[in-house]
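Hi all, long-time lurker, first post. I run a small reading group and we've been trying to get comfortable going from sequence to structure in the token notation. Rather than ask abstract questions, I figured I'd post a concrete chain and ask someone more experienced to write out its structure so we can walk through it together at our next meeting. Sequence below, copied exactly:
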Amino acid sequence: MSDSRAASLRALLFASSAAGMLCAAPAMAEEPEVVVTADVVQQSTNLGTIDVTGQVRRPAPQSPEYVAPLVDTPRSITVIPQAIIEQTAATSLQDLLRTSPGITFGAGEGGQPLADRPFIRGQSSGNNIFVDGVRDTGGQQREVFNLEQVEVIRGPDSVYSGRGSGGGSINLSSKSPKLNAFTNVSAGVGTDDYLRGTVDHNMPLGETAALRLNLMGASGDVAGRNAVDYDKWGAALSFAAGLGTNSTVVASYYHLDSNQMPDYGIPLYTKRGGATADRPDPSGVLDVDYSAFYGLKARDFLNNRVDSFTFDWTHRFSDAVTIRNVSRLSNTLNDYVVTNPGDGGNAVLVGDTWWMKRGLKNRWNPARTLANVTDVFGKVSTGGIEHSYDVGLELTRETNRNAGYTVTTTGGTACPAPLTGFDCTPLYAPNPDDPWTGTIVRGPTSRAVTQTVGAYAFDSISLTDRILLNLGVRWDSYQTEGTNLAQAAGTGVITGTPVPKRKWDFVNYQAGLVFKPTEASSLYVSYATSSTPPTVSTGDQNTATNGQGAGNLANTILDPEESESFEIGAKANVFGDRLALSAAAFHLTRKNAAILVDVGVFEQAGEVEVQGIELGVSGNITPLWQVFGGYTWQDSELVRGAVTTAGTPPVVVPNAFEGLPLANTPEHSASLFTTYRLLPKLTLGGGVYYVSDSFGGNQGGAGGGANRIYAPEYTRVDAFASYDVTDRASLQLNVQNVGDERYILRTNGIHHADPAPGRSASLTLNLRF
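-- Answer (accepted) --
Happy to help. Here is the structure in token form:
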């Protein structure tokens, strides 16, 4: 067993032994685990929280910015509850968001960090991930062991989140202390050396205080991918005082340490001669085995570390006024050296074997965020009209440091002529165990500092019992500056280029009108906007950019790109509030991208459009039958893109991709995860996930370049079974990708495509004390 695997296993065993010590004394089960009388429904077969009367409380966004219940909020919002996190055996944010159709993940390339890069409504939203309402900066691949639920807000939402891409945002709600004692322990084993253990222990400390501890240790291989493995451990400690009173304080600490073999997938057909090479598959993905791994076990690595401290204080003066203040200091590290099979030049045919040089990507990127968010919210009546309001102030300072590695190979697999040097491998039979010796030396560190001030106000106005008006406005001041350092090859001389201070002020709006046919249903229309400063629209906020354009705009500070969305929709809670249904139709436009429009002439005239329909279902059709999923149809288009020039004198060549779909924006996607309690102790179910063709690319423009490379459509099926051994112990079986469907998750459309994991299975023992 490797040192990393041993460390992970020790963490897992520690978690289990700690659970045993914590559970030595009798403890009552957590409230959601209690069996209610009339329907005999446990949390494992219900997506809502069950109160003592047996009524279901629907999951809802936790931020006070959402001033109305979910059914009365005029925009598309999906809440993924903790039950789905556990039942699907998700271990990462990417795993979990598979259950929410319409969200794809972009591949790392083109200066993008190797980290979570979700796309929502065709827009890159990696910058719009929040934890408990505070922006979670820094490149990382996020875990789920400390999450109560995940909230996906679709469409332009700068009124909630400040600067953003216009597609939407994702908020991760952390587990928090409760006043009832409980301990939940899980220990899982599976195929591909899968090991995972978690402990969730909540301990009341008197009548108004409690402590909650979450631990996780995991290791394993990625099914169907040679040499790709991981090990990680995490801990989250949270203390709350004043629970159940008018003043509550919650102090928490979160730590994650993740090590894995980074995977840049397999090459594209262009590896065998560029754009004019033979294309063995219409998708443009090279016809190699999907298990082929081009990295070097002796060299490549990826480490994510997160340390986050949060202080949350809430005081309720009355129904009319409550104040909440959240302060956070977080440090993240994204550190990697990864083989890119698409870099390193074209492959060469030597004899009857194609040989290639391994390309290389690397980054050392620590990020620090200091943030403070203050909200004042409540309900007041004026002239017989009820207002549910929130006003707030957000202050943040984000510091990103960036450095690259100089990787020098002194020995390894020699390259056959005409290739020279080392780090070569057969294109169709790469060997991750190839020998490698050399040095990895970190270069000079650049620095980028972002400071923001955001002031906002929301109001849900009950004009009548059936008509609500939802309004929101936010003003942001966004400021960046930094220094870029570079080291000259050969001489080693380090030069620094200051990036001057740039500042943008922008205002965004939201307005929605809600009609309620019944108390548990609504029809709505809404309008919302978003602003994307040029340092965000470049796609990589971890580096310092000057916010200026090119050519005639070289000395011009670009205006933010602007997004707007019109949306109509309907929501209903049915079957005694057990099942939530939603439907929305939207039209999103993003304008103001800087593009070349004529010979030597740049303008902020780029434009894209996405329109579509979203359907959602969450809850219980019957007390024993649970469903969660939806369907998304997206019609995306590059309305106006950059022209090119050719010839002497140069002439304009129109953009060949205008009218074509955007990258990472499949037309159709659907998911359904469902379970049924077949017997009092046996629950069966599973998930079906479908995604249509998805073109490759990075920035949300027309994907795939001139080659129109895409990830082909796929359908994946997962299976689930749970058996209650006792009232406190259950066994859970998950089989991911039952049919061993070999498909491409995504492609950047330039160098590589990422195969999805193959079939895997895990068996987990869940204990409740």
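A couple of things your group might point at:
The longest helix spans residues 3-22.
The CA atoms of residues 165 and 626 lie 34 Å apart.
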